From TrEMBL, chain A:
<keyword id="KW-1133">Transmembrane helix</keyword>
<keyword id="KW-0408">Iron</keyword>
<keyword id="KW-0472">Membrane</keyword>
<comment type="similarity">
    <text>Belongs to the cytochrome c oxidase subunit 2 family.</text>
</comment>
<dbReference type="InterPro" id="IPR034236">
    <property type="entry name" value="CuRO_CcO_Caa3_II"/>
</dbReference>
<feature type="domain" description="Cytochrome c">
    <location>
        <begin position="236"/>
        <end position="328"/>
    </location>
</feature>
<dbReference type="InterPro" id="IPR036909">
    <property type="entry name" value="Cyt_c-like_dom_sf"/>
</dbReference>
<feature type="transmembrane region" description="Helical">
    <location>
        <begin position="74"/>
        <end position="99"/>
    </location>
</feature>
<dbReference type="GO" id="GO:0005507">
    <property type="term" value="F:copper ion binding"/>
</dbReference>
UniProtKB/TrEMBL annotation, chain B:
<feature type="compositionally biased region" description="Basic and acidic residues">
    <location>
        <begin position="13"/>
        <end position="22"/>
    </location>
</feature>
<feature type="transmembrane region" description="Helical">
    <location>
        <begin position="64"/>
        <end position="86"/>
    </location>
</feature>
<feature type="region of interest" description="Disordered">
    <location>
        <begin position="1"/>
        <end position="22"/>
    </location>
</feature>
<keyword id="KW-0812">Transmembrane</keyword>
<feature type="transmembrane region" description="Helical">
    <location>
        <begin position="113"/>
        <end position="139"/>
    </location>
</feature>
<keyword id="KW-0472">Membrane</keyword>
<keyword id="KW-1133">Transmembrane helix</keyword>
<protein>
    <submittedName>
        <fullName>Uncharacterized protein</fullName>
    </submittedName>
</protein>
Length: 328, 143
């Protein structure tokens, strides 16, 4: 039994350690800020363990090892030293170090600023390269160049959200009517996952996004393409999908640059087919997922403002999906 | 003070107990005294956080004179807590009596117990003020 228990504990430990890896983990950093926070976490944990061992070691000593009466001076020393002096110095040192690295997370950006506006439950994204007069508008995905410090100007529509890409840095709350700032520097190219980290309503858990750290040249090329208008996808289904998009009134809420659709209620769809996810991290951006999303929004994302277009036939949904997936 | 170490004698002589009651009569009011140090701590906390929040909201930055003033307030708060703590330590009177816990419930015990409590509260308030002051020195600006 004992062996089984130990094996279970080891398996549980291995499983929980496995949970520390991955693309949404503060403990597998992809950038300088996350690395600093990771170190901070381990040092804080070390300090806490040290304090725990010292305190409980003393408890153990006086209650089990040497339970007899001890000289007053020694007893006072243990209570005052272990109970007041040691924790005060240790916590003071940890606090001082933590505070000293706090400003690093708010350093000014190297030129590119990304404005992110939290909605229920998705992200309005605007890229403002240095000196830009107008932003490149996108949604539900963050791309950033590796090796550059990128500034994020954050605010929110109706409720408080929190912007967090654990693998790249610390979280920052997003408030309606008040702009907050955080800067991130990705060091390793990769695809990370961001997640709203402040409860913001029934689909809070589905408010996520993909964060793609790219080599600077690739990022510049991507941003140029993203700034352009949508190229109308070719093919019978996609062309029928474009007509359905207009007929169903999708453009009342969604904008597609280069078409007459300029709605601002929902996410900009100009290059939605080029994104890695749809529905703010809800589904992979495949044609099948587009069709599922359009016809089942309310079950995929409870409370979402977009109605389910479940009156569409499978063929119509597939055509619409082909059009949207083609908007790369 | 030596009378308290002979409880037999004290219990046998009601007149002496009455005298003790009179001697420590101010205890009824001095409960307030044990809250002095935490009150200074909380006042300092509110002063620092409100002043910096207002400066950041109105000016977008914390002017040097405000940081200096708050640091001076911190020194003053620490001095005041130190004084309260010293008074409390004297009231606890542990060095004379050697009595840590004052368990007897007589007026003098209560007096010394309140000193003990006030002394411990002064220690934690002192540490609290130090920790509240650290961001003033280590975090610049409003971000």
């Amino acid at each position: 039994m004992r062996l089984t228990g130990a094996a279970t504990a080891a398996a549980a430990a291995a499983l929980s350690l496995a949970g520390c890896a991955g693309r949404q983990s503060a403990l597998s950093p992809g950038g300088a800020d996350a690395a600093a926070l990771g170190t901070l976490f381990w040092v804080m944990l070390g300090g806490a363990v040290l304090l725990w061992l010292a305190m409980n070691g003393m408890f153990f000593y006086v209650t089990r090892v040497n339970a007899s009466a001890m000289p007053r001076r020694l007893a006072n020393g243990m209570v005052i030293g272990g109970g007041i002096v040691l924790p005060t110095i240790l916590l003071g040192a940890l606090l001082g170090w933590g505070l000293s690295i706090l400003p690093d997370q708010r350093q000014p950006d190297d030129g590119l600023t990304i404005r992110v506006h939290g909605e229920q439950w998705w992200w309005r994204v605007e890229y403002w390269p240095e000196g830009a007069a107008a932003p490149v508008v996108s949604a539900n995905e963050i791309r950033l160049p590796v090796g550059e410090r990128v500034g994020f100007r954050l605010d929110s529509d109706q409720v408080i959200h929190s912007f967090w890409i654990p693998s790249l840095g610390g979280k920052m709350d997003m408030f309606p009517g008040r702009e907050t700032y955080v800067s991130l520097e990705a060091e390793a190219p990769g695809v990370y996952r961001g997640q709203c980290a402040e409860f913001c309503g029934e689909s809070h858990a589905w408010m996520a996004f993909e964060a793609v750290a790219m080599p600077p040249d690739a990022f510049d090329a991507w941003l140029d393409a993203e700034a352009g208008a949508a190229a109308a996808p070719e093919g019978g289904a996609a062309e029928r999908g474009a007509a359905l998009f207009a007929r169903e009134g999708c453009g009342a809420c969604h904008a597609i640059r280069g078409t007459g659709h300029v709605g601002q209620v929902g996410p900009d769809l100009t290059h939605v087919g080029g994104r890695r996810s749809i529905g703010a991290g809800r589904l992979a951006a495949t044609p099948e997922a587009f069709a599922a999303w359009i016809t089942h929004t309310d079950s995929l994302k409870p409370g979402v403002r977009m109605p389910s277009y479940d009156h569409l036939s499978d063929a119509d949904a597939a055509a619409l999906a082909a059009y949207l997936a083609g908007l790369t | 003070m030596s009378a308290r170490h002979d409880p037999q004698r004290r219990r046998d002589r009601p007149a002496e107990r009455d005298e003790e009651r009179r001697a420590f009569r101010e205890e009824a009011e001095s409960l307030v005294r044990i809250t002095a140090a935490p009150t200074i701590w909380s006042g300092h906390f509110l002063l620092c956080y409100c002043a910096v929040a207002i400066a950041c909201a109105k000016a977008g930055a914390v002017p040097g004179w405000l940081t200096g003033g708050l640091l001076a307030a911190s020194v003053a708060a620490l001095a005041a807590i130190g004084w309260v703590g010293w008074r409390a330590f004297r009231q606890w009177n542990v060095t004379d009596t050697g009595d840590f816990s004052n368990p007897e419930g007589e007026a003098e015990d209560r007096h010394e117990f309140l000193g003990h409590a006030a002394f411990l509260l002064a220690i934690i308030s002192f540490i609290g003020v130090v920790y509240v002051t650290m961001p003033l020195l280590l975090v610049e600006g409003c971000r």
